[in-house]
Amino acid sequence: MSRHGHAFIDRALYLPKSWADDPLRLKATYVPNDIGFATKPRLAMWMIARAVASGVPFSWVAADSVYGVGEIEGDLRRLGKGYVLGVASAHVFRSWGKKRLFAGTAAEIVKTLDPSDWQRLSAGEGTKGPRLHDWCYLELADLDADEFNEASHGLWTRGLLIRRNITDGEFAYFTTWCPAGTSIETLVNVEGHRWSIEDSFETAKNEFGLDHNETRSWHGWHRHVSLVMMAFAMMAAIRLQANQSTPKKTKPVPGKCRPCSSAGRSRRSVE
């Protein structure tokens, strides 16, 4: 994902534990012998690790609460990546070393906030214009980045980002990790990029048949999804070219001749 557009770069098939523990079913669908049960957060980290190994440039990871926290947070810190990860309202946060201290679940902390703690910001452009919500960012602690990654330096901040729906007042909570001094606008922008992921899945289903998959094997699934990914990437590239502004036509200046080539006439005269 970049300012030029977005596309899929990797995929992983989640096998429920009931599948992973059934050798006959795995054999019947040609699942490789070295494939075992893996949680969705673990699959996500494998894809992130492959992106890092391939030299894909990125600084942030955004994910919803399905991918959980804990292990994935530690992995991202060791990779030196910032993150905005969704968490449940019962997730516990504690601050230390800050003037304003917080402790409790996300749902309990939000009740202690003042009206002045909130800012109305856009998480990016949607189909109907700016996606506006009320946001609050609480810095919980500053930590030395080299404790997790020797290549990282300086202070990084552990934080809690809260989103409040303007219409119904519903809350969403995110645990964050970022270089100290990172603005709330940056964190909101990172979280807002998850909309591009959801939009991509919707487009891939409607336009390229992502969910029209009736394969019955491990290889069949990967081939189908890979084909959809390639089609989506091609569409993104074509869209970028189509949306590029055409150069403005210059008006001829009165009394000034346009330059022309006389190479053809000169060649004939020589002959």
Task: Explain what the structure shows.
The structure is a single chain. The chain is of the alpha+beta class and 271 residues long. It is 35% helix and 22% strand. The chain has a 6-stranded mixed sheet. It has a two-stranded antiparallel ribbon with strand order 3-4. Residues 259-271 have low confidence and may be disordered. The chain has a domain at 60-208. Strand 1, helix 4 and strand 2 (82-87) form a beta-alpha-beta unit. The chain has helices at 17-20, 23-28, 40-53, 71-79, 106-110, 184-192, 194-208, 218-243, 263-270, and strands at residues 60-63, 82-87, 92-94, 103-105, 119-126, 129-144, 155-164, 171-179. Helix 3 (40-53) runs parallel beside helix 4 (71-79) and helix 7 (194-208) packs across helix 8 (218-243).
Strand order of the largest sheet: 1-2-8-7-6-5
Order of helices and strands: HHHEHEEEHEEEEHHHH
- Distance separating the two termini: 58 Å
Judging from the principal axes of the Cα atoms, what is the shape? globular
Number of strands: 8
Going by helix content, strand content and strand pairing, the class is alpha+beta
Bin the helical content.
Answer: 25-40%
Whole-angstrom Rg: 26 Å
| Biggest beta sheet summary | 6 strands, mixed
Individual helix count: 9
Strand content: 15-25%
